[in-house]
Design a protein that fits this description.
Layout (H helix, E strand, L loop, with lengths): L6 H29 L10 H34 L10 H36 L2 E2 L9 E4 L6 E4 L5 E5 H6 L2 H16 L2 H8 L10 H13 L1
Parallel strand pairs: 2-4
Antiparallel strand pairs: 1-2, 3-4
Helix pairs in contact: 1-2, 1-3, 2-7
């Protein structure tokens, strides 16, 4: 005879299985809605489109997690009696395994992305040089063969630019560059990009994810 499943493990298994089913349903719904092209029409301001696209792409994982923790788990604990020897069936176990796989891969992507970004930031700041702080405060200028300006970092982004850009621009141009990057900072674009790249849902494996992500990227 099979050993009975501990109550706590049964609750976790049911929660994971519920998350998997709810995420599948929500991902399918988002995919259908996306094909209507009504989520973020082009006449809306870019900031509004970016916000809508981010929330829309977040919806499957967020809805599945909310319903799992607020509805399914409390209902199971409250109304499902603790029957000695009870075990989940193979379908429940399979769904729980799929959900565990999704969550593990999402966590791996999130950690890897944060570590790579931190490594790039450290490498760039090691090459920092002094610039006129009156021209562009809070700027880290670095020696680089490639001209660039970027906010680097996930949680506390740092404005970094190559010295070739700083040397080639006058004060007004640098001020416009700073204003542009402050817009990304105010919108939390680096953090949002990191979140979108690590969502634990079925949609992450669909071409629709890339379509929504690209539309968000252009809008932001």
């Amino acid at each position: 005879a099979r050993k009975p499943m501990p109550r706590a493990l049964m609750i976790v298994t049911v929660a994971l299985a519920a998350y998997c089913l709810l995420d599948l349903a929500a991902s399918a719904l988002v995919a259908v809605i996306w094909r209507t092209r009504a989520v973020a029409p082009s006449h809306l301001p870019p900031a509004t489109r970016a916000r809508r696209l981010f929330l829309f792409r977040l919806a499957p994982a967020a809805a599945a997690a909310f319903l799992t923790f607020v509805v399914v788990m409390p209902a199971f604990v409250a109304f499902e009696p603790d029957q000695h020897g009870e075990r989940g069936g193979p379908a429940v176990a399979a769904l729980a395994i799929v959900a565990s796989w999704q969550l593990a891969l999402a966590a791996t992507r999130a950690v890897r992305s944060a570590r790579v970004t931190a490594s790039v930031r450290r490498d760039l700041t090691r090459r920092a040089v002094s610039v006129n702080g009156q021209l562009l405060p809070h700027l880290t200028a670095v020696e680089s063969p490639v001209p660039f300006v970027a906010l680097v970092g996930v949680f506390r982004p740092q404005l970094i630019a190559s010295t070739s850009v700083v040397d080639a621009c006058d004060a007004d141009e640098l001020a416009m560059i700073a204003a542009h990057e402050r817009g990304h900072l105010a919108g939390g674009d680096n953090l949002r990009r990191w979140v979108l790249g690590a969502l634990p849902d079925m949609l992450a494996w669909s071409p629709i994810h890339d379509e929504i992500f690209d539309a968000w990227h252009h809008a932001s």
